[in-house]
Amino acid sequence: MHKDTSHTPRSTAAALLPLVGGPANVTSVAHCMTRLRLGLADRSRVDDAALRALPGVLGVVEDGASYQVVLGPGVVGRVTEAFEALLAADGGSDTPTADASIAPAATPAGTVIDPAGTADTPVDTADAPAGTADALARRGAELKARQKRRDATPLKSALRRVANIFVPLIPALIGCGIVAGVAGLLTNLEWLPGITPALAALSSAFMALIAVFVGHNTAKEFGGTPVLGGAVAAVVVHPGVTEVTAFGAALAPGQGGVLGALAAALLGTYVEKRCRARLPGTLDVLLTPTLTVLVSGLVTLYVLMYAAGEVATAIGTAADWLLTTTGALAGLILGGLFLPLVMLGLHQALIPIHTTLIEQQGHTVLLPVLAMAGAGQVGAAAAVYVRLRHDTTLRTTIRSALPAGLLGVGEPLIYGVSLPLGRPFLTACVGGAAGGAFVGLFAMLATDVGATAIGPSGWALFPLLAGGGGWAVTAGVYGGGLLTGYVVGFAATYFFGLGDGTARMRLWGA
């Protein structure tokens, strides 16, 4: 059933609160780009069925650490604000903390699978009506249950923490990236020469100090004092480091970038915890912050900045070589494998790589290639919509999720349609591979396509595009890649992804 969206953020928040057990059951509140994340005292007090049926709720997801209500981009921030106001009025919630997770796995029909805990092997099931959203919801729940045991693996826990550090920075990256694009356009057109320097300063200021924010978030995530994490990481971008010599060469401000800041703040948090565990209270207030800054700062200057700088340089060199030398093949592999990476939660490992490339080169050449996976998913969903003409429920689900998919929010389609069906997920990967190969081919022809920020995808990425050939050429290549992904994803699904095309098929085995 298509959900009514004529509700207000306050009415949505007021409806959500009793369904999650009331104010006394909520221990923390946070949000990311699409999800309201709640810490709950008693999970059993949640009315899942009523919550999923609530207008405006796209689905729910549990990652073991929080209960997440999927509301969609733009909406979630306003609902979270209203939710917090209700809790503050009642006195039932702790102080909210910033969220930091990658976009969730959700379905418009209300079934959600955690990207970090989705099955990577087929589910052996009996025949089920493939065209019913309810059948897909049940299969999605089975996938989720099978993988829930794997959610707490050390790798996935580490990746979640990486996401918790970097994702809160995405809004600033987006805003500064768009301002940088406007400044570049005005400069090329020689318009408003009096304001372009101001726009350039606005767009570059955040990137000049991003190490401080990374240090702050790292310490916060790992249980240290956030401001101490920021203080230790600040040395990475301080102009005075030019007077310091490490490994026979003078340091440069920003050397090591976000990787150096991350390492510095991790070390600082470790030193701080060790000090607090050993120093008496009378000395702790003075010596702990002093030793944290001193010890961590010196190690950062004489070891970490140099080492992280070498790693960052290697990342930039490898990314450039990968696309300029093996562009079509690299694009095919990256575009084809990104949906499975999202499915397994491993895409979070790419966040610091994207950020390093943006900091180092001004844009990340990997994101536009990876964005082609979403184009393949849109094409696959469109094919399912066309082939299953008599299934009005599933078609309504796809119709409600396609606009978000076009804007790069593809999880509702992935986890509500293609993944439970099985074959359409594979054919969506084929579409993503084709789109990635298209973009990679042009990189081999010296027309690189980059993004000045991470977060947006699909059509929402156009304002953030950058490349050596100018915005128009870059946008043309990126648009061509999207079109290729749509067409190939549609064709592969239409002809090979739906079995005999009848209204019944075997999920994960049609």
UniProtKB/TrEMBL annotation:
It is found in: Cell membrane. Gene3D superfamilies: Glucose permease domain IIB. Residues 160-510 form the PTS EIIC type-1 domain. The active site is at residue 32. Keywords: Cell membrane, Kinase, Membrane, Phosphotransferase system, Sugar transport, Transferase, Transmembrane, Transmembrane helix, Transport. Pfam families: PTS_EIIB, PTS_EIIC. It comes from the Bacteria. Signal peptide: none annotated. The chain crosses the membrane at residues 165-186, 198-215, 222-241, 247-271, 283-309, 321-344, 365-386, 425-446, 458-478, 484-503. Its main location: membrane. InterPro entries: Glu_permease_IIB, PTrfase_EIIB_Cys, PTS_EIIC, PTS_EIIC_1, PTS_IIB_1, PTS_Sugar-Specific_Components. It is a multi-pass membrane protein. Residues 10-93 form the PTS EIIB type-1 domain. This is Uncharacterized protein. It comes from Streptomyces marokkonensis.
